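Side project, low priority. Logging it here so it doesn't get lost.
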Amino acid sequence: MKPVSNQKKAINSSNKPLKVAFIPLQRLGDGVITLLVANNLHQNHYDVTMFHGFMHQLNDWFDFSIQAYPSHEQIEKRLQEFDLVLMDQCIPYVLEKDKQQQIVLSERYIFFAAGRMPKELIHNHSERLQQSIGLERLSEYQSFATASRAIKYNKEDSMVDNMVKYCQLTLKLSNIANNTGIDIPNSLEFQKYKKRVIIAPTSSLEKKNWGAKKFIALARHLKKQGYDPIFALAMNEREQWQFIINNEFLIPELPTIKHYANYLYESLAFIGNDSGGGHMASMMGIPVLTIVSSPRKINFKWRPGWGNNAVVAPFVSPKFMGKRYWQNFLPVRKVLNAFSKMIKTEAND
């Protein structure tokens, strides 16, 4: 399968493009998915700048600007140059405020949310936009005045699908793309290493993790089948996992998101818990097998939304004293079978 990419360039508008600041959630996976919104704004002739603590490292892979997430002391000053600001209600800058301060911010910026959206943070921004861009241009951008909402349209859809609908149904953009517009350097070769399988055994929450013993057992099976399993970990996790793995498998140094992206793009496939690495691999067309903690999450909305992907879940997910004990109900064989099926589908495409 070829990587997901969009080479189309924005066309200059006769009017001065509206300057839009876009600040999504700051986790890696959220950053990858919301690139889709930034790309759609760009394709519809907006002068968009996305602020993200991880994705700015890939700024030169996109036609629109991605800047580092500003310090909280500088963020208000930084945003003054923009005509309008689309801001996730749960970014750190908002969450550090008390309720009343959050309401004040929601009147100044257009809040959106990946989850629930409190009514007191939803406003019609027509009057403020008129002051910012003038009455003559207001009708052209009226959809932004009412863009404050939860990005949830169909609970069966992935977040990628919901982001597309946000662009189409709420922002009412005319040219809609379901990709991020990524332009991967020609110096990299798609799936160059035909047997290299990236295993990402950690995530942001311990309860989402299948477990070290399970992943090591999976890696051993993959190696017997002729694959080259590689463990991908954050730099602050490497020392612990080098001890766990005991040099049985390679743990490459991936000090930046760009190093990680380069490595993913030239690999055959990705296996991991629900985590940002899976979304990045999916964005670049690499097959992703996501391990989830419950059978009810087979179609969970945060699943990777591009390319050839699969989700595998335990047979059951029993709960005792508030904690789920699902790991032992997902055998290695089931994950291995799901991987083999996914790779077979990839080969047939």
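Brief comment: The two ends are 6 Å apart (CA to CA).
Revisit when time allows.
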